[in-house]
From TrEMBL:
The lineage of its organism: Eukaryota, Metazoa, Chordata, Craniata, Vertebrata. It comes from the Eukaryota. Belongs to the protein kinase superfamily. ADCK protein kinase family. It comes from Pavo cristatus (Indian peafowl). Gene3D superfamilies: Transferase(Phosphotransferase) domain 1 (1.10.510.10). This is AarF domain-containing protein kinase 1.
Amino acid sequence: MARRALKLASLAAAASGIYLYGNKFMDPNDFGVVRVGRAIATTAVITYDYLTSLRNVPYGSEEYDFLKSQVHLRSAERLRELCCANRGTFIKVGQHLGALDYLLPEEYTRTLKVLHSQAPQSTRQEIEQVIREDLGKEIKELFVSFEDTPLGAASLAQVHKAVLQDGRTVAVKIQHPKVQAQSSKDIFLMEVLLLVVKQIFPDFEFMWLVEEAKKNLPLELDFLNEGRNAEKVAQMLKNFDFLKVPRIYWELSTRRVLLMEFMEGGQVNDKVYMEKNGIDVNEISRNLGKLYSEMIFVNGFVHCDPHPGNVLVKKCPDSGKAYIILLDHGLYQVLSESFRMDYCRLWQALIKADMKRVQKYSRRLGAGDLYPLFACMLTARSWESVNRGIDQSPVSASELQGYVQSGVLPLEDGLMEPGRAQSEAMMTGGQADLTQEDVEIRSNAAAYLPQITQLLNNVPRQMLLLLKTNDLLRGIESALHTRASASSFLNMSRCCIRAVSTYQRSKSHSLYRRIHISLTEALSLWQINLYELFLWLKGSRLGNWVIVFLSRMHHST
């Protein structure tokens, strides 16, 4: 009897195996045991590599630094392979890590950045299944045409171009069918593995990443929430005539399917595209800064995924005006009023080089004794430059030297210093190549990893997405070879002044006090406008002529 039962069980297992192998809708990667096993094995290999590769090498030596870089690279490649294999949530978290330039070792960010272009694609059958389940109709009933090849595929969804029965061209965003079911399990798995790693490496403080994924993924998986965000930001920024946000077609949208107005253009980091189409790179960079200053400081409602695939640029052939097209509105950070005011005042202090207020508001935002590092992370500048004033100091290749040379960072004993010789070798006539500087900053971020991870665990959760947004915007600036200029800092100052004044008026019950606040605001904005005019004159031919003329008049008298 037992032998017969064993034979039947064997036959059933064999039949199931043949069925699963022959069924094209089944993927071994979808089985929990495969995904869990792969994640555990990758984590174990990475942990073992760090434990053994650096064991007998003197800390701080050239050999140690070289071997550590190699371990970083091997580990990043293993992590990338895990993300590509497990897909979905793993790719989303990997993309987040890849965006943290200046916060993680360069080996990780460079390796994980490719995940933006290696997202999985759902098959035609899977797309039809989602549309059938959510909209109750077949694709051919809804659309005159539907392109099989997606315009783009991301970790959670992909977008197809289609034409509705009434002739409207639309973009159809469709969620990968298995992401919803797998996301909560994947996050729990990551949390367990990170807790285990933290037991082995006490300085490893990346639980904030899991907490952010727990909070944000459910929102990103609800496309109706994304549609509401798109409409809210379009209304909020309607005064910016250079901004375009696709219109949402609610009648054909669900939690897993989103229909939008079709818009196309070049990616915001594609300098060749802009030059070819006569688009002013500096104007686009300035306008992007205006958008985000308004979102962060004035409205406290921030689009937190401005990677190049989500920000397009296009020049209108009729008017000749260049537009910024903002896509993918699934992830927004809502800033509390108290956080937003502290953040405004911190940036005002940074721009004015008011170090007492920099310390005060950095501490209020959770930086504690690490406030110098916090200021450097926000601005991507050295402590020396922060002290001089970030709007006054040109970016130089020796930026990271300032962390150690200033003697103000509470660094732990034995922490590796940035390579001074490397920095000096990169100097060219007093002005560094910005791409080389970026590479140096990222590579030296590894030296401060314990402090950075401690800081990221201490600051409010709202700050984490702002830091990610800052890094994505800096990446765009680097690709366009533009840098935060005096003009961009003036725009930030305007937004900070308006935000703080609006807040103060709302808290004041005295008419005299409200009038005084409004007059102070108007005066401060007038001073900024006057200073901007001065900068324009100084950089123009007319301005130079006026300066020469006044100088001659002065000498003649």
